[in-house]
C-alpha cells in the first residue's frame, strides 16, 4: 500500500511540473502602466472682487483726505475762507474781519490758534495715516497665497480702518459744533461749509464701505478644494 501511495505522489508531481511548464504563473501585481489611480486634493485660492474694491476704497480715502487737509475751503463767508492750516482773506473782504482778526492784507495766513481747528486737523492726519496702513495691509493680504496669513492681514486692516473712520467722523463733528459756539464773533450774516468739508464726508463714506466689504466677504468664499486623479490606465 505504501508503494502504491508513493507512485500516486510521483505521478502528481510529474503532472504539476508539466502544468507549470505549459502554463507559467503570472504575477498577481498589475503592471506599472495599469496601476490604480490615486486621488489628490488641491487647494485653490481665489481673490474675491470685494477685497479688491475695499483696497480701491482705501486708496480713494487717501486722496480725499489729502485734498481736505491741504484745502482752505472748509468754512466760507464773504471775503473769508478757512481751512485746517490756513485762512485766506479776499480782496473785497468787508471789515471787520471774522473772529476779531486784525485787519490784514488780502492773502492767506496761518490758521487761527483755536483748539477745535487743531483737533480737527490732528484727527484728519490720524485718519490719513491709519487708512494708509489699512490699505497697505489689505494689499499685502491680496498678494499673499497662504490663506491663514491672508486673513490675518485682512482682520488687522479692518480694525485699523475702523480707527480711521472714527477719527474722521470725530473731526467732521467737532469742527461744525465748535464753530457754532463762536458764531457770534463771525461778523458775517451768512456762513457755509466749503467743498473740502464735503470731501471729508466723502472719505468717511468710502471708509465705511471698505470696512463693510472686508467684514462681509466670508473667509470660506476664497478657499476651494478640487479633487484630481493621478495615474491609471
UniProtKB/TrEMBL annotation:
Gene3D superfamilies: 1.20.140.150
Subcellular location: Cell junction; Membrane
Gene Ontology biological process terms from the UniProt entry: cell-cell adhesion
Domain of life: Eukaryota
Transmembrane portions of the chain: 52-70, 119-142, 154-175, 195-216
Keyword Ribonucleoprotein: no
Alphabetically ordered keywords of this record: Cell junction, Membrane, Transmembrane, Transmembrane helix
Pfam name, any one: PMP22_Claudin
Similarity comment text for this entry: Belongs to the TMEM47 family.
Name the record gives this protein: Transmembrane protein 47
Species this protein is from: Cimex lectularius
Amino acid at each position: 500500500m505504501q508503494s502504491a501511495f508513493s507512485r500516486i505522489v510521483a505521478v502528481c508531481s510529474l503532472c504539476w511540473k508539466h502544468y507549470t511548464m505549459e502554463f507559467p504563473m503570472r504575477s498577481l501585481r498589475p503592471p506599472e502602466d495599469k496601476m490604480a489611480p490615486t486621488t489628490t486634493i488641491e487647494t485653490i485660492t481665489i481673490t474675491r472682487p470685494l477685497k479688491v474694491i475695499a483696497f480701491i476704497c482705501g486708496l480713494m480715502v487717501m486722496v480725499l483726505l489729502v485734498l481736505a487737509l491741504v484745502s482752505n475751503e472748509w468754512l466760507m463767508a464773504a471775503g473769508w475762507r478757512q481751512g485746517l492750516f490756513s485762512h485766506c482773506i479776499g480782496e473785497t473782504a468787508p471789515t471787520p474781519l471774522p473772529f476779531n482778526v486784525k485787519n490784514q492784507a488780502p492773502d492767506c495766513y496761518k490758521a487761527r490758534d483755536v483748539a477745535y481747528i487743531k483737533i480737527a486737523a490732528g484727527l484728519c492726519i490720524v485718519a490719513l495715516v491709519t487708512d494708509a496702513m489699512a490699505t497697505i495691509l489689505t494689499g499685502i493680504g491680496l498678494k499673499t497665497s497662504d490663506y491663514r496669513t491672508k486673513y490675518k492681514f485682512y482682520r488687522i486692516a479692518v480694525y485699523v480702518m475702523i480707527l480711521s473712520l472714527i477719527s474722521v467722523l470725530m473731526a467732521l463733528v467737532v469742527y461744525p459744533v465748535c464753530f457754532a459756539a463762536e458764531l457770534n464773533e463771525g461778523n458775517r450774516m451768512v456762513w457755509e461749509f466749503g467743498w473740502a468739508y464735503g470731501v471729508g464726508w466723502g472719505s468717511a463714506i468710502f471708509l465705511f464701505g471698505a470696512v463693510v466689504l472686508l467684514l462681509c466677504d466670508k473667509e470660506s468664499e476664497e478657499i476651494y478644494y478640487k479633487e484630481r486623479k493621478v495615474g491609471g490606465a
